[in-house]
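Researcher: Here's a chain I'd like modeled. Treat it as a single chain, no partners, no ligands.
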Amino acid sequence: MPGFVSAIESNHRNTITNRLMEDLAEARLQAIAISSSMALCPSNSAVRNTCDTSTDWSDGWYVYAGSSSALTAASAAAGAVLRAPQPLPSGWVVDAHLPSPGNFLALSALSETSQFGHFTIYRSGYSSTAGCVTVSSTGRARSSTASVTSGLVSTNNDPC
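Model: Modeled as a single isolated chain. Structure tokens:
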């Protein structure tokens, strides 16, 4: 039974990691194609079509035309949103480790970002291994997995 649980956890981690990688790649391609900035930000679960101010992306994320976390209901209604948030499985966390304020990532038409850093994807309270998505200053993303040396993965125990 433990092997089965581990396989399910690994599958969820890979699915979330791949979804984030696909959205980062799509935003980068769109920014280049339309010669305008594209951004990603965490969903504000309380107010639809707005960015959350935290670095917790566990409620999913928006991909939209813009260069800041200024997604609004009006800009969403005007067609700015390329992809709406998809819910994550219960208990899964996506922590953004980006420069302050850390609640958005913008990619320019030149395929550059000043918001480079990484995301840590894990099951809260259960995981010793995390999915890591690292974004370079050129807007390219790469994924990997990493394990903590002791304890469980958390915001303060980040193996990425």
